[in-house]
């Protein structure tokens, strides 16, 4: 017995020496101290999305999407699958017990081994073994793999990490869904305002066309001036159709996101230019590690990958299992539950790979490579999160400054339209100056709406980049 134990110990040492070492890299979680030299930890990501987006129409859309969005519901089913995987993994390191019953007939030939044994028995006349011999059995069989190297327990831990990772993936999707609906909603409001600007400009140009036609009849202007005014009016009228098509597509996209067939989207577009951009508090970069669901998702995926390496490494070591059975067996049903019909067995196995371990090595190397891949993905996610926040904070500052400048330009060009029309009527300006002023005023108004939309998008995107919305 002592020699056997020593032999087993030496075999374990041999297997351990042959196990390849893992190539590990510690993940880098370090981030800069601040985004913009501020160390204030107040973070807008902690604000509930209902408070961050106070528009009741937008809140109604988001509420509907969180309940009906098909992609989100599909992801919830994936989370349920991952949860079931935990139960399956947990069951692997617990004993398996099966109960069964059976019945059969057996007929041994005279010249078989069993037949020869039967012939050699001293069986009295009239007491021969029945042919064929019935066989009835009922009992329980148990098997249990001893999780000596924690391979099965690590498998359960990896399943838990992947389940939690999928939950964080769901949270990240909620954040993206809220941001996508908000951006589309503000885009729809911007399109409404652009359409209104075009229609107002069409009315101004129609009035200018009537004036130039009257002057042409009075021989004060030529047909060329009339044609130029008419062409500009047609060009402006044509712009509205593209805007109308974009409105339809944006409405349908919003309806798709909330999981319903196309219907009108309720909104208050007249208030678009009056929406104020409240101060967004970015906090400090280290808060991204806890606020951003995608970072937590990558971290949990890395944890699962590390456990997979441990599981793959355990395949190089011996596995221990115990099998046992107890039940009743008899050739006659009336003796089946007799104490003398009890049968049982107990055994143990020790199995270990000895030669041709290429498949195990390949599995281990692949697990190790996926671990390194998860490390790089985790670090990349942190870097991407920081850059997204920095970009959107800059966008808020620059778009706000741009809106102020463009608003002044719009005011000046609106005044220029009135001035140019007055000068044209008094023959102190030609029609080209009127046309140019009208075109510049229209373009500046449209650009002002686009800058306002850029402001709103920056507000939405910085909230998403900070990790807001899912909680």
From TrEMBL:
GO terms for cellular component: plasma membrane. It is a lipid-anchor. Residues 188-222, 432-459 form a coiled coil. It comes from the Bacteria. The keyword Signal applies. Keywords: Coiled coil, Lipoprotein, Membrane, Palmitate, Signal, Transmembrane, Transmembrane beta strand. InterPro entries: MdtP/NodT-like (IPR010131), OMP_efflux (IPR003423). It is found in: Cell membrane. Pfam families: OEP. Residues 1-22 form the signal peptide. Belongs to the outer membrane factor (OMF) (TC 1.B.17) family. This is RND efflux system, outer membrane lipoprotein, NodT family. It comes from Cyclobacterium marinum (strain ATCC 25205 / DSM 745 / LMG 13164 / NCIMB 1802) (Flectobacillus marinus).
